[in-house]
Amino acid sequence: MPSTTRTPSNFIEAAAIRAAMKRARTGQASRIGPDPALHGHDAELQWVEAVLRHRLSLNPLGRPVSIRTKDDDTHPLVADGQHFPAVALSIPFADRTLNFLATYDDDRRLTFDLIGPCDRCGKPVPIEEINSLEDLGDHLLQTRDGLGGSPRLRTSPAHADDCLARGN
Ligand SMILES: [Zn+2]
């Protein structure tokens, strides 16, 4: 992973870096409470979007954040799954877009990965598990290099066929 630190280009990245520095200083993440519940009348995509807004504490930022949410054509919703697609979410800004993938981890918990180019093949793959504003800040500050990125990085079907980053 590159160790360059980029400057935040939007208010979400700036808030994420502030949150990560606070967590590093105090050892504690901000308490955000339980995820929103999935109610029968909600479409699942809307629920996944609501969970991402909650995990990233977007509503307390006090500015409207538009999120585009759709089925992901490449990744399954659960590891080795076939029938249900993962959910792709994007937060567009003027100069870049933050792309996330929502899947269920081995504990059946909805989890989010930041999508970015593979170091080896350049395809868009899950590079870092991001479940809080602090996580996003750590990623932007490159303070989590030692953690090795998302567990989905090696299993992602989005890699090029011959990509060595893909596990077997
Ligand atoms: Zn790759």
Strand content: 15-25%
Shape: globular
Total domain units: 1
Helix content: 10-25%
Taking the sheet with the most strands, its summary is: 5 strands, antiparallel
Short description:
The protein has 168 residues and is of the alpha+beta class.
Give an overview in words.
There is one protein chain. The mean pLDDT is 89. The chain has one domain. Helix 1 crosses helix 3. A five-stranded antiparallel sheet has the order 1-2-3-4-5, with helices on one face. A hairpin with an 8-residue loop joins strand 1 and strand 2. By secondary structure, the protein is of the alpha+beta class. The protein is globular and about 40 Å long. The structure holds zinc ion (ZN). Zinc ion (ZN) binds next to loops.
Keyphrases for this structure?
five-stranded antiparallel β-sheet; 3 helices; 168 residues; alpha+beta; 5 strands; binds zinc ion
Please outline the helices and strands.
Elements: H1 11-26, H2 44-55, E1 68-76, E2 85-92, E3 97-104, E4 110-117, E5 124-129, H3 133-141
Antiparallel strand pairs: 1-2, 2-3, 3-4, 4-5
Helix pairs in contact: 1-3
